[in-house]
Amino acid sequence: MKKLIVTACMLAMVMSTLTGCVKKTQESPSEPAAGTVQGDESAAQGEASTTQLPANETQSAAVNEKELNIYTALEDEQVTDYLTEFKEQNPDVTIHITRDSTGIITSKLLAEKDNPIADVVWGLSATSLLVLKQNDMLEGYAPEGVDRILPEFKDAAEVPDWVGIDAWETAWLVNKEVLKSKGIDTVPASYEDLLDPKYEGLIAMPNPASSGTGLLTVNGILQLMGEEKGWEYLDALDKNVAVYTHSGSQPAKEAASGEYGIGISFGYRCINSASEVGPEIAEAVFPSEGSGWDVEANALIKKADQKEISKTFLDWAISDNIMQKYAENYPIVAIGVGSGVPEGYAQNPVDQLIKPMDFENLAKNRETTLDEWTLRYDAKSAQKE
After folding, report:
1. What total of structural domains would you count in the chain?
2. How many CB atoms lie within 10 A of CB 310?
3. Is the pLDDT of residue 309 over 90?
4. Region Disordered: start and end of each range (predicted)?
5. Domain span at 68
């Protein structure tokens, strides 16, 4: 694993370019680590994957230090890979994973507010965690090593309610064979390019009410263009969109498989899906105007009976080894930019991000934004499974 080095220069760049913040991933998972109950494939398709405790254990689960309930929006294969070390360190702990898209996990947490099931949240968007904070659902906790987390990647309180791990951003995957079959020999490199009438019916995009990737893309466009022009752009884009999916990964996967010509998704998924089918077929594109983005972050859920194992997990989730694992998938992690940028990303990944993104304000306006988007475009949303 690569060594993360944050130089003074790079730290300054990240700090300055991320000003304004307050503060996800391949669906062919390997076998879960021993003792782990892993979310299944349906989770990535818009249906929550939740393991159920045996009936004789449900009453004691809330205070059982040998069981840990984790809600996450990380990709299935990332969850399996990342958890290996934690399970090795805590072999007697059984982990129950509930994994789904960001919007679905957020809605589930809000619905369970008065009777929370999750012990911790791992790798959910900062925007969503700020919504939970506004609903008084988070318990402040300063995990071991939090002092080295950049200010823009954690809650501003002395004892933070949430702590970030990495940033993820808008990208799209272009299936050049599909476009060629339609007589198109160009690859759209910008938001403006996506409006060309020749792409009508060829674009898949995530529904922001279900997908954090969809929401960060919409928020990025509104931030980049302003509210009025941003909604005008989304109106025009809608004419070319065939479907709005309930997973941020799905558009890239479906474009890679040839179902659509263009799949708006996020960097990690586009790069990996393009790699799976080969550069002669598919290409990952980061929009020339800049990418909308968010921070994947962790938090302790407020409950009557807190578990020490929850805090142990949150300590581990920002430790040096796991930070190195995050950096294998994302070029920007919560302690800065690593010494080696993963293949497929720009060598100056911070420059790709639309700045600033005011996550506090975006969280406050989340419902307003989603209501407006739903009113305008939800007719093209895929049926929920």
Report:
1. 2
2. 21
3. yes
4. 25-60
5. 8-167+294-351
